[in-house]
Design a protein that fits this description.
Radius of gyration: 15 Å
Number of domains: 1
Strand content: 15-25%
CATH topology: TIM Barrel
CATH architecture: Alpha-Beta Barrel
Length: about 120
């Protein structure tokens, strides 16, 4: 039988090792169920460890983390114009926007934004 064993202490140690080597903020990506490691468990461990930012793919994942009591900054990368920008702003979820339409909606809702610019390869 296949199984995965996740050592949350090791994840926290790895975060702290990166953090100790930089003055920059460290963003831990927990999208896609933390790559199969358990989004809630990993995010909770990193939240308790004082992680700077958690990143997720979509608004549903971000809202799940907020509902689970995660207070750390959350960056949501994949926003569509149909997403609930007001709910994101109320939930203090930072939004990665890549279109003028999304930027306008995010700013109108009072959300903090990160502008994504595709410069090509």
């Amino acid at each position: 039988m296949r199984e995965i064993r996740v050592d949350l202490d090791a994840i926290v140690r790895n975060y702290r090792a990166f953090k100790a080597r930089t003055e920059a903020e460290v963003c831990a990506v927990v999208k896609a169920n933390a790559y199969g490691h358990g989004m809630h468990e990993v995010a909770s461990a990193l939240d308790r460890a004082g992680v700077d930012v958690l990143a997720v793919a979509d608004l549903d994942e971000a809202l799940e983390l907020r509902s689970a009591g995660i207070e750390t900054r959350i960056l949501c990368w994949l926003i569509s114009p149909d997403d609930d920008f007001e709910l994101a702003a109320q939930s203090q979820i930072e939004l990665g926007v890549s279109t003028f339409e999304s930027l306008e909606k995010a700013l109108a809702a009072g959300a903090k934004v990160h502008v994504k610019v595709d410069t090509g390869l």
